[in-house]
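#struct-queue
[09:14] JT: dropping the first one here, sequence first, then the structure tokens:
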Amino acid sequence: MCRNITPLRGLEPPATEAEIEAAALQYVRKVGALQSVSPRTQAAVDRAVRAIADATGELLAELPERRRPPATEPPMRRRGRTVDSR
């Protein structure tokens, strides 16, 4: 499990819904000390990811633009992966 969550503010193009959800899942797994999601934890994880993804989207929409882009790309943009626009 990753120790750091990649910054999404200031990306060009802006962070996609999939990138926001991936960051939310990473956060939920870290806080919940979950290496993987089991059938027993799936419903709780899904609810938490949705709530955090919604809050993250609102936060990114309300923050002013960054002067410089983040130092690292989100994992979904590495190794030639394509990014869907919102």
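[09:21] JT: and here's the second one, same format:
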Amino acid sequence: MAPGPAAPENCVFCEIAAGRAPAYKVYEDDQTVAFLDLFPITRGHLLVIPRRHGARLTDFGPEDQAALVRTLEKMCRRAERLTSDYNVGMNAGARAGQIVFHLHFHLIPRYDAGNPFQPSRRTRLTDEQAEAVVAELSAA
């Protein structure tokens, strides 16, 4: 892995990737990590990140991008254990809705006809909910 942009000291996703911050991890390998969003839009809402810091897809070369897409594809297959329908999205920049400036893809299982991009109140994931979903999605 080539070095990427320097990680800011307060990047929560860098801390999760390094194992220094808690997360409900579903998958991890040498280059990527997938974990549950703490404020999920739907049950099983995952974030897929590179271990290396960079805010945008364009901060990474083809090898790193390929590793991220391979993990995203694995997580899509696992999400199909919950439902056959899901959204995959990425926000690049503040005006696009990016809040954590570490590249991440959202994988959002869809259970009804609601619009996942329409603002709505999201509630915090409970430990019990997280543990149940992690158990469903973690097995290979």
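[09:30] RK: nice, looked through the second one.
[09:31] RK: The chain is about 25% helix and 15% strand.
[09:31] JT: good to know. The CA atoms of residues 34 and 121 lie 23 Å apart.
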